[in-house]
Amino acid sequence: MGDQDDTHTAFFYGTLMAPEVFFTVCYRGATNDVGLLRSLHKFQPAILHGYCRRRVMQADYPGIVADPDHEVRGMIVTGLTDANMYHLDQFEGREYVRKEVKARILTKVGDDKGVGNVEGEEVECEVYVFLDKTALEDREWDFEEFRTQKMKHWTREDYGFADSDHFSPHAVDDEEKHAAVSMGAEFRQNGSFTTDVLNNPTTLRDYALPA
C-alpha cells in the first residue's frame, strides 16, 4: 500500500513510535545526519480502532490483536520505501504479520485513556499484528516506561532526539532532500557509504534493499 509516489504508510504502536528506534532500524550505518533523515518521513499521532495493545511476555515491546472493544494510539509514518519495509519486516520477525488497516489521524491528543482525543482524516496504512495472543500479558504496554528506561538499548547512540516531540517533521532544504532520494548503488554494492557519496546525491531511503 502506498501513495502516488509509490511509498508506504504505516501505523506504529510500540517501540517504533520513537523516531530514534525507527531511524536505527531503517537507516543504521547510512548517515549521521539526523536532520536529513528526519526530513524523509512525517510522524503524526493517530488512533487505530478495533485492536488491543498488550505487552509481550518477558519483552520490552508490545503486540496488538483484533478486539472490537478497544483502540490503540500510535503514530502514522509516511514516505516508507520498499527498502524501509524490508528492514521493518526483518525487525518485527515471525511474531508479527503485516496487515492493511485504516487508522485516523489525531488532530488533538488527549490523555492516556483517550479522553480529549480529536479524530481527523482516515488513512489507509499497514500495521504489524501479533500472531500469538497467548504470549501477551494482560496489561497495557507503557511507552513512557520504554522511552525512559529501555530505549537506549534499542538505538544508535548518535541518533539522539532530545528535542523530539515525536509528531512534527523537520524541514531541510531541497538539495539535502535530493541527496537523500537519489540512486544508492554504492551501499547495495559495498555495504556502506564513503564520505564522498554521503556528500553528493545518493540514496538513503532506498539503501540496502536486497536485489
What does this protein look like?
The chain is α+β, with helices and mostly antiparallel strands. 24% of the residues lie in helices and 30% in strands. It has seven helices and five strands; from the N terminus they run βααββαββαααα. The chain has helices at residues 19-27, 34-38, 82-92, 143-150, 174-181, 185-190, 195-198; strands at 8-12, 43-55, 62-80, 96-108, 118-130. It has a five-stranded antiparallel sheet with strand order 1-3-2-4-5. Strand 2 and strand 3 form a beta hairpin. The protein starts with 7 loop residues before the first strand and ends in a 13-residue tail after the last helix. Residues 157-211 have low confidence and may be disordered.
Task: Give descriptors for this structure.
30% strand, 5 strands, alpha+beta, globular, five-stranded antiparallel β-sheet, 7 helices, 211 residues
Query: Hey, roughly how much beta strand do the residues contain?
Result: 25-35%
Percent of residues in helices comes to 10-25%
Q: In this structure, how is the largest beta sheet organized?
A: 5 strands, antiparallel
**Strands across the major sheet, in which order?**
1-3-2-4-5
Shape summary? globular
Instruction: Supply Rg.
Output: 17 Å
Structural class designation: alpha+beta
Whole-number average pLDDT? 77
**Could you give the distance between the termini?**
21 Å
**What is the helix/strand order?**
EHHEEHEEHHHH
**Total beta-strand segments:** 5
Total helical segments: 7
Give the uncertain stretches in residue-range form.
157-211
In short:
With 211 residues, this protein is an alpha+beta fold. The protein has seven helices and five strands, in the order βααββαββαααα. The C terminus is likely disordered.
